[in-house]
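Form 7-S
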Amino acid sequence: MNKYILVSSVSLLTIAAFSNANAQSNARSGEQATRVDEIIVTAQRREQASQDVGVSLSVIGGEQLDEKGISVVNDLENAVPNMEVDSQFGGGQPQFRIRGIGAREYSSNNASTVGIYVDEVAHPYTVTTQGAMFDIARLEVLRGPQGTLYGRNTTGGAVNIITNAPTADFQAGFNAEYGTFDRYKVEGYVSGQIAPTLLGRLAAVTEQGGAWQYHRDTGEKLGDLNKTAIRGRLTWDVSDTVTADLSATYSIDKSDGRGFRLLGPYKVADGSVTYPKDTAWRITGWGISQRLADVAGVSTDAKPFRDNDGFDLSARIKADLGWADLTSITAYQTFSRKEYNDWDGTRFQESDVYFYNDINVFAQELRLSSTSDGPLQWMIGAHYADETIKGGFFTEFRGSTAPDYLSSLINTSYDQGVTAFGIFTHNSYQVNERLNLILGLRWEKEDRDLTSFGTEIAPNPVPPPRTFDTTMEEVTGRLGLEYKLTDDALFYASVARGVKSGGFTTYNSTKSEATEPFKPETVIAYEAGVKSDLFDRRLRLNGALFYYDYRDQQVQGLEYDRDAGRLGKITNVPKSHIMGGEIEAIWMPINGLTITQNIGYKTGEYDEYFAIDGPATDAANNNQAPWDIIITGDKSGERLSFPKMNYGGSVAYDWEMSEWELRAETNYNYRDELYSVSSSSIIDAYWLWNANFSVSPAGANWRAGLWVRNMFNTYYEETRNGFNGSARPTTSPSQGRTFGVRLSMDF
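Output:
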């Protein structure tokens, strides 16, 4: 780690020295001061300067996404403090965690602890978010419970993806890049006036190629991208007081899946082959059986793949009533998931899975908000959602305690329905020119039901379906204050209560009792922070501290049924806590030089958790019903499983030379080690560095550049798979160094 800190320091000093030597010759005309730009956000459902919003908030502009290598929501973890996003076991479904609050599961039926919104429309199932990252205006990441401003309630936070709106004047452009392993990406848009009261925008993106892994036995390549998406937006001025925004997005993803590496010697179940530990970074393996290929509708030479497509349709209508604004958001989403992963990383079928899901979501939101300039600003809203998700997954699984699985095709299927209704309000009162008080409340009721068709193990008889249901009715809210220390410094403090709904465990289990619902989890969050602009707005420095009282935390664990015995399922930890903080800074010491830094730290532990000891409980009951004796172990004081620290930043310098405009930029991120519960092992800490250089003629409408990602070819892992026993885990590695060229043009 020390060598990377040294490199970072040398880079900063070198660029600063170079910049100071050339600042006078490169200064722009006039007496324009070097100041951090004001950023307008809509995190609180109205336009505000980000520095005036009393919440912990990170904002990433659309132009920064390519420089930071952010092409899917998973990449946000390398740009936002105290945030992790990963796809469990290399799959296509991301899991979000903010400040340690978040799930780690591969099934698709449970709600996310972090709300994901695209143009104010909630995406309750995160697998549907993989095609949203194109033609972006900005991203807003809010940390902490959210429920008094948003359609759905979350304990971790919210990610707002705001796409570019139609423009009144004609605009068009494209961004094309080509890089290592023949990967290319082309993104373009056209925008302008269609009729006197109608504006339109059409944007599209395609990403192809990039196979960087290979099969250890055959040499076949793996990792090609095949993703395409298109979005159309219309803005219609229905009258002088009514505006309608219509949006439709279609995305399709037929990319290869992620291959796995062997972290140790692997002996296949029949003993015929023992694979040595993989030492080559890019090596992997796969092999699909005839019966799994038949249910997936593919041939036996199929690679790990994704065959997903989604369609989103929304209408946002805003009416100026004179005394208030009325906003209506109607949205419909449909998504189909078909995905094959080989988790054992060999040509043998010992941990292979095929996911199949059909998701449909209808949502309606109404908001009424004040428009007066008085001290009281208020908003009241209501949100309704109707969701269905059908499907499940087929597996061929080598279970350490279930050798009969080796010769069986296992199907776990379900049919889930959700209806949710909530009423929420957010209000602020300006006591004087410095003090602002905030009160938000939410009442909601959510009903979930799931019909489980059990885990079918061919050729055994199909178990009869069982239906389970759970209801959540909660009141949550936020109480806070904002105090202007100076004209350029804001202190804020709040206490908030958030809730994440309960749900159902849909893992492999021949015991239907494992599908019994788990309880909602709640977080009471205490937070205080400062936002400041210093030195004539050359330095922006924001920081926050937090403490979370965490109740009924949802974790993967064990429960026992008196008759059925051991049940592997999601369960609830009675009490735990998390505390930590973040610091974010933007510094513009001289004209053209921009330095950003961020650091996040968190730590947490169980306060009350008597976890069931499975082997001891089985032995105490002679491994047979009735299971009346439950043996537990006290895990109070054990650390929660998440990286303690991340540190990141960027250094960018813009200058002019001989009628050319040039830009050099590097960004970096350090992430602490992580304990992998699935494999009972440590995933090492790592550093990532990216760099960009671009050039264009002064005043030209095009720009060309070079880029490199993972500049120091750092090996790092996303998740590990311990399904075949912790002594032989596999891991999903991330890509090494890549580089390429980029061309951007606007018309």
